[in-house]
Amino acid sequence: MHLPLLFPSFPAATPPVPVKMADKPVPVVEKRLMDVKLGELPRWVAGRNLTPNGLVAGVFGAYDRYYNKYINVKKGGIGGVAMFLFGYVAISYVWSYEHLKHDRWRKYH
Amino acid sequence: MTLSLFNQFLSPSLMWTPLAAIALALPWALFPRQTARWVNNRLLSLQSWFLGQFTQQIFLPINNPGHKWALLLASLMLFLITLNTTGLLPYTFTPTTQLSMNMGFAIPLWLATVILGLWTQPTQALGHLLPEGTPTPLIPVLIIIETISLFIRPIALGVRLTANLTAGHLLIQLISSATSVLLSILPAVATFTITLLFLLTLLEVAVAMIQAYVFVLLLSLYLQENV
């Protein structure tokens, strides 16, 4: 099957390849968090449902996604719970940083 | 100087949210809800097994009307054991080191058992104030003593849990700060303190679980007397 010579730059030996279209641009707000670029982050956060109901739904949704990905699996290991607890330790550190930063250069503890 | 030892028991706030709120919400996240499936994931199976064993053990000596307390005591046990053990992780906040919270658990639950006993079987509940076979001259004194011991129960429950956990955390902080200071001065002594710290941490893990169990066990004993 021969295409008409619309693209004369193509070598004759290669099979005819249709021109690819780029992926349609998606509005920033509808992207998943992992696909959002850092510069677009404030716009993404502003576009989400920030009502109390929306926030609660967001928390529960995140919990459900984590649970179904790491814990509710056939042969879940300690990794799911361990990651969660490590995140809890990290959050506790962030929460107590204001208090902890004074200990760093103190001479007598 | 002495003030800084107890600073670890303050709950730091960020954006008007105390860390205690996150610490109190953690047990909810760690224990998934039961499903209707026959075979669940490993965490849920482990949890069901533990709850079954625990509830059977605790409610063995309690008669049938007392079994209504199974949900309350089992959830209390899970809550306390999670708070205690996750409090041993670095930088975390342990809500059970706060006397206010432990008294908040102890007093209402103890009072509930006492009121239950006085309401359903007042004679027997009051009869507990005098052990059988008491010599007659001792009766008045013993009734006073037993009443005092009855009223001291909630205080003992709350303070036991608070004191054990607070003391454990304090010891860990003291020995670890001693170790970090000694590492630069006398490394040989520091190895001794490191071993001590390791053993202490093991002890604290055990104490965390045992204290939660003792709290719930004593409540079940008070329930057994009164129901």
TrEMBL record, chain A:
<keyword id="KW-0375">Hydrogen ion transport</keyword>
<dbReference type="InterPro" id="IPR019344">
    <property type="entry name" value="F1F0-ATPsyn_F_prd"/>
</dbReference>
<dbReference type="Pfam" id="PF10206">
    <property type="entry name" value="WRW"/>
</dbReference>
<dbReference type="GO" id="GO:0042776">
    <property type="term" value="P:proton motive force-driven mitochondrial ATP synthesis"/>
</dbReference>
<dbReference type="GO" id="GO:0046933">
    <property type="term" value="F:proton-transporting ATP synthase activity, rotational mechanism"/>
</dbReference>
<keyword id="KW-1133">Transmembrane helix</keyword>
<keyword id="KW-0813">Transport</keyword>
<dbReference type="GO" id="GO:0031966">
    <property type="term" value="C:mitochondrial membrane"/>
</dbReference>
<keyword id="KW-0406">Ion transport</keyword>
<keyword id="KW-0138">CF(0)</keyword>
<feature type="transmembrane region" description="Helical">
    <location>
        <begin position="77"/>
        <end position="97"/>
    </location>
</feature>
<keyword id="KW-0812">Transmembrane</keyword>
<dbReference type="GO" id="GO:0045259">
    <property type="term" value="C:proton-transporting ATP synthase complex"/>
</dbReference>
<keyword id="KW-0066">ATP synthesis</keyword>
<keyword id="KW-0472">Membrane</keyword>
<comment type="similarity">
    <text>Belongs to the ATPase F chain family.</text>
</comment>
<keyword id="KW-0496">Mitochondrion</keyword>
<protein>
    <submittedName>
        <fullName>ATP synthase membrane subunit f</fullName>
    </submittedName>
</protein>
From TrEMBL, chain B:
<protein>
    <recommendedName>
        <fullName>ATP synthase subunit a</fullName>
    </recommendedName>
</protein>
<dbReference type="GO" id="GO:0045259">
    <property type="term" value="C:proton-transporting ATP synthase complex"/>
</dbReference>
<feature type="transmembrane region" description="Helical">
    <location>
        <begin position="101"/>
        <end position="119"/>
    </location>
</feature>
<dbReference type="InterPro" id="IPR035908">
    <property type="entry name" value="F0_ATP_A_sf"/>
</dbReference>
<feature type="transmembrane region" description="Helical">
    <location>
        <begin position="139"/>
        <end position="159"/>
    </location>
</feature>
<comment type="subunit">
    <text>Component of the ATP synthase complex composed at least of ATP5F1A/subunit alpha, ATP5F1B/subunit beta, ATP5MC1/subunit c (homooctomer), MT-ATP6/subunit a, MT-ATP8/subunit 8, ATP5ME/subunit e, ATP5MF/subunit f, ATP5MG/subunit g, ATP5MK/subunit k, ATP5MJ/subunit j, ATP5F1C/subunit gamma, ATP5F1D/subunit delta, ATP5F1E/subunit epsilon, ATP5PF/subunit F6, ATP5PB/subunit b, ATP5PD/subunit d, ATP5PO/subunit OSCP.</text>
</comment>
<keyword id="KW-0812">Transmembrane</keyword>
<keyword id="KW-0375">Hydrogen ion transport</keyword>
<feature type="transmembrane region" description="Helical">
    <location>
        <begin position="13"/>
        <end position="31"/>
    </location>
</feature>
<feature type="transmembrane region" description="Helical">
    <location>
        <begin position="69"/>
        <end position="89"/>
    </location>
</feature>
<feature type="transmembrane region" description="Helical">
    <location>
        <begin position="205"/>
        <end position="223"/>
    </location>
</feature>
<keyword id="KW-0496">Mitochondrion</keyword>
<keyword id="KW-0138">CF(0)</keyword>
<dbReference type="InterPro" id="IPR000568">
    <property type="entry name" value="ATP_synth_F0_asu"/>
</dbReference>
<feature type="transmembrane region" description="Helical">
    <location>
        <begin position="171"/>
        <end position="199"/>
    </location>
</feature>
<keyword id="KW-0813">Transport</keyword>
<keyword id="KW-1133">Transmembrane helix</keyword>
<keyword id="KW-0066">ATP synthesis</keyword>
<keyword id="KW-0999">Mitochondrion inner membrane</keyword>
<dbReference type="InterPro" id="IPR045083">
    <property type="entry name" value="ATP_synth_F0_asu_bact/mt"/>
</dbReference>
<dbReference type="GO" id="GO:0005743">
    <property type="term" value="C:mitochondrial inner membrane"/>
</dbReference>
<dbReference type="InterPro" id="IPR023011">
    <property type="entry name" value="ATP_synth_F0_asu_AS"/>
</dbReference>
